[in-house]
UniProtKB/TrEMBL annotation:
GO molecular function per UniProt: glutamate racemase activity
The organism's place on the tree of life at top rank: Bacteria
Gene responsible for this protein: murI
Protein's job: Provides the (R)-glutamate required for cell wall biosynthesis.
Transport recorded as keyword: no
PANTHER family the record matches: GLUTAMATE RACEMASE (PTHR21198:SF2)
Gene3D superfamilies: 3.40.50.1860
Catalytic activity line of the entry: L-glutamate = D-glutamate
InterPro entries in the record: Asp/Glu/hydantoin_racemase, Asp/Glu_race, Asp/Glu_racemase_AS_1, Asp/Glu_racemase_AS_2, Glu_race
UniProt protein name: Glutamate racemase
Catalytic residues in the record: C91 (proton donor/acceptor), C200 (proton donor/acceptor)
Species name: Nostoc parmelioides FACHB-3921
Amino acid sequence: MYSSSSIEGNLYGFSEQEPQRAPIGVFDSGVGGLTVLRQIYRQLPNESVIYFGDTARLPYGIRSQAEILTFVRDILDWMRQQHVKMVVMACNTSSALALDIVREEYDFPILGVILPGAKAAVQQGKRIGVISTPATAKSNAYRQAIWEIDPNVEVWQVGCPEFVPLIEQNRIQDPYTTEVARAYLEPLIQQDIDTLVYGCTHYPLLAPVLRSLLPPQVKIIDPAVHVVTACTQELDLLGLSNTHPPLPTRFAVSGCPQQFSQSGVNWLGYTPLVEAVDFAGIPVSQLQQDLA
């Protein structure tokens, strides 16, 4: 189904008798999931991580559920070959459209970002705005998750199709990005929201822009923080927490490794060594062609 330039099989060399030392798999369509990776570094410093960015097929937010399911299964099949002990879907679109289905298909725990984000939002406010990809907004996943916790909370959702491409193209400081953000936030500000949820793991990378446009009293929820807290609890519950020093994070992408490495240094503080995974017959997105 796929091949890798050098990532093959049990790359960490741990014993099956030491499952605690197995890595956590983290994946996203691109660099957005690095916000989750940074939280793992902070909250779970002993854990080894394999990070995968499906950059050849981003953005996910305009894809159908059938496409997302295919992509997610490709990635999870590959993660299984890397002998991960757990996978974090650092992608709201995947969490909204595929999580419940694939949880039944794989023998390792898979965590999504939506429920932890919804729980955190309900603890903070009663008038909640959610910015997300169009696919996540259309799924109503955040509204449903929030209402299951507290049906009296009001929720407004805005799909933001331009954010992920702008972030992947390193255009965060571009004045055009500020104008796009202003247009997306305006209907939420008009509703007098008291809490804003980043409904896409890319969006914390826009924090300075978004914060400058929001009223100061609006609280911001980053689900990346809360999914890693849930990950910590799950590892403890399953007896899979690693007490040994971690191994270096491994990075792999389906698109251009050099492009990801250049983008990643801005968010990681170091230049990651990135390897390519080739999913057979993968259709390269127009955005990835533009980035090349």
